[in-house]
Amino acid sequence: MSEALADSLLYGLVVLDASTTDAQREAILSQGITLCEAAQCNHRFHLELSTTGLQLRWLEHPKMLPLRIDFQTGKHAFRAAQARIKDEAIARACGLQKMKQPHILDGTAGLGRDALVLAQLGARVGLNERHPVVALLLQDGLRRLYQNAQEWQQRLYFAGTDCFSAVSADVYDVIYLDPMYPKSDRKAKAAVKKDMQMFQHLVGSDTDADALLAAAMRMAIHRVVVKRPQHADFLAGVKPDAQVISKKHRFDIYFPEQHND
Q1: How far apart are alpha carbons 31 and 179 in whole angstroms?
Q2: CA 47 to CA 57: how far, in whole Å?
Q3: Residue 114 burial (10 A CB sphere; 0-12, 13-18, 19+)
């Protein structure tokens, strides 16, 4: 057993099962030590590499199915495949009915579900995810997607973990933000599905969410779109220039040219 493998198993974060190939072991171990450091050796979760891909197991709930990002099958992939611009509030908010193949940055990509819908509807979408564990899950999901459909490499891609850096900042037609809302501020009656419970416990709240708006406004050409719960305050206290309201959420829209004078 290599020293890196022994270290990662000791931390209890990266678990490689007996079916894992040598190539897969090397690939995950090249990220495993960094992952342990960045995640501060979280003993509540195991990141496992199995024959079906990278998956996250919540140790406090052993009967719960592990979380794995799948862009090809399941209800979220089905929803994206059936999506229509006129029926999707997120598509209207991002201007897909006005712009042809806009380049969108999902600045808080999470599990990539909203990004998949936007990509299915014609946008080219980059995924920015700051949490190291979620970033690995996203990249593994994309790898499996590309294996079955190479054309997706032009439609949905991993942009990085710090796309808002002033040094490396790029520009996009639209920047989409869906920051994690503080748990204490969520409505008590709001039911959270099991996979999202796991995600929320792993990631926590985006305490710097307000700062993301200013960074996004500098990088977006046409608009910044912020997904918020219906009762939530405006991000950074800034009133949007327009809104699209859905049954469960609202999408606050900001036009950079009106704020960067």
Answers
A1: 25
A2: 6
A3: buried
CA angle (117 as vertex; 113, 119 as ends), nearest 5: 110
- Name the pTM for this structure: 0.81
Contact yes or no for 133/57 (Cβ under 8 A): no
Is a pLDDT exceeding 90 seen at residue 251? yes
Backbone CA torsion sign across 227, 232, 238, 239 = positive
pLDDT averaged over every residue in the chain: 81
Max intra-chain CA distance, the chain: 59
Pair type for strands 242-245 and 249-254: antiparallel
Cite the DSSP H helix spans in 149-208: 194-203
For residue 142, CA distances in Å to 77, 157, 200 come to: 13, 7, 21
- Residues 121-127: what's their mean pLDDT? 97
Instruction: Report the SS3 class of residue 105.
Output: strand
